[in-house]
Write the structure tokens for this entry.
Amino acid sequence: MRFSRCLLGKIARWNGDHQNSTVYRCKEGNRRMTDAPLFSDASASGYVIDAENAAEMARLIVQDRLITQAMGGLFPEPMKITQVHHLLDIACGPGGWLLDVVKHYPHIQGVGIDISQLMIDYATSLVQTQRISNAQFRVMDATQPLQFPDQAFDLVNGRILTGFLSTTQWPHLLQECWRITRPGGSIRLTEPEYGFTNSAALDTLTGMAAEALRRAHHSFSPHGRTFGTTPMLRFLLSQAGYDSIQQQAHVIDYSAGTPLHQSNTQNLLVVYQLLQPFLVQMHVASAEEVHVLYEQMSTEVRRPEFCGLDYYLTVGGSKPQ
Ligand SMILES: C[S@@+](CC[C@H](N)C(=O)[O-])C[C@H]1O[C@@H](n2cnc3c(N)ncnc32)[C@H](O)[C@@H]1O
């Protein structure tokens, strides 16, 4: 698939200036924007947002940059990167993280997989236009057996898988990761946790998202008060057979006046636009209630006194020799 200059231009403009953008209010060709029903498609892959939505792809491009920046780099934790030659990124989205890795570490051969044809086509177009020879992207469903031979990778990476993995699918995916990792290789997973803010509307929406994730069986939280994956990661890796498990927490301060305020509020405005069908379908609120909260949240996050923190946990483990 080729990307029209118009679509790429709109994504670039949207990334730079969300508030004046028209990207997620318009239609172009067969690319569905947010004014179309979303969750009917999304539920087919298990993902809570439509993975073939261009606005979602544009959001992920922004989110990738801000998470990597806030975490302090591509591998903020101790990592024997010279020993990594073959790297898999699961649910790579538009490929930003993997492409940064292979550019910084040219000895690495990177493979990115994602269920979305749109994301994979976009990442592949970047590989081609930037003449990157050490990365490739493939459409693959990570809830199914992975189409790679045993012991094919030195490192398997996954960031923000909670959105599509159910609690029962986590162990199956980690078994597959174990199978395709060479002895002595490693895995690293990064997942978000409930973020705290002084915006009443955003806090209510975050609570609704947590409860909707629980109802959709994507959350390990018993009462749906948190996103619920982060406390489980060490246990899940241990159950899969990994050892030398290490954890590192990251916080994103996107309060008003901070460097990440604009990009993370932009991210939130889009994510809660795109999540609305999921929240309604999980019966945590009516469409009207979610709409009113969204409008209130849009105002509150732009106030000069707005304070907000998002949390991520990276957990890494090794496959014994
Ligand atoms: C929140 S995004 C994370 C993207 C990327 N890992 C990052 O951190 O920037 C989740 C990604 O999972 C992909 N996805 C959803 N269901 C999937 C599945 N069953 N198998 C593989 N990828 C899937 C979506 O298309 C989307 O790109």
Remarks:
- The domain at 5-318 is CATH 3.40.50.150 (Rossmann fold).
- The chain has ten helices and seven strands.
